[in-house]
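Example record used in the benchmark description.
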Amino acid sequence: MSANIVVRSILSRNIDRAGLLLQGNQLLTIVDNSFSKPKASVPIRITVNGKPFEYNATVPRVTEVKTDRTSRICIATIQFLQPIVDTPFNLSPSPSNLQGSTVYFRDARGDETWLDGRVSRVDDQVFRISTTRDFSAETYMVVGSPVAVREGGFEKIIGMIVSAGADALIAVRSEKLGQLLYYPQERGTTAWNLAFLRQNTIQALLHDLELRERDGLADAQCQQVQAALETLANTERTKATSAGFWEDAIRTDLEDFAQTFIRWNSHEGPQAPRLRGVTLIELRLKRRRIARQFSTYQGILSVELDNNAFEGVYATLGQVANSNPGLFVNLQQALLEYRRRTGIAI
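Model output (structure tokens):
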């Protein structure tokens, strides 16, 4: 699962650095602040597990990541014009209990030995690793190295080291790294399904609920919508390693959305329309959070999520719309558009 990757001729000072090769033909590597983005493809020489490769590549994105109040580091996403090798790294979400965890990293020059440290601070984008070794005079040894945790005998890559000091290292979290990658959204792919779900389908359902603000839904209709939302929350994963991530980052929000929907429909009495309007605002805010989660973690979800599971989600939503003609008009239109684009009968 792991590999050593060294990049050369991408830094303005021409220093060897390591990087993460992800999604088959994309490389994340460290660049300095004087790096200028090329207008055309450039030759990039990389070494993977000691084997040299030379390819033309483009640098579609250079992102600054803030590592503390005064320091920023640039990370480049290098897009190779043809596939390189099988993906050496399986980027995983950083654990929710990362604080205090033992993590592993390696000499970026190619040494296979894993070194270890303990996470002493966790921020939104980066985390700090305390070590007993002084890397301040030899930062090139570890900057760009993957950071891993060990679960079930396997290393899970949860970040990349971007700076090294006398007694600590700074690493970018995998969630941030995942945002730096480019995920093509061809029709039918997991990334496309996630985008359509958050931008079209859930939004259409909320528009229909707004139209039912005065009367709400009958119990049977409410149960149908609830079942569809629960189907989405219980979407199966393709790999067991992603189960914890789905539970922590996605499923909880989806279940909260479903419970808020039930509360939306439970209001009674003369104040019910006003209360449903207030609860609908809550639903929209929760939809936005879910959309951000889908967008932030789309790289991980694209690898880990079972794409066939979307058929079950849309089949359940189709039952809601088809069994209540004229009631869920916006949802019906979204489903028809999904069918038109994918060719999947709903």
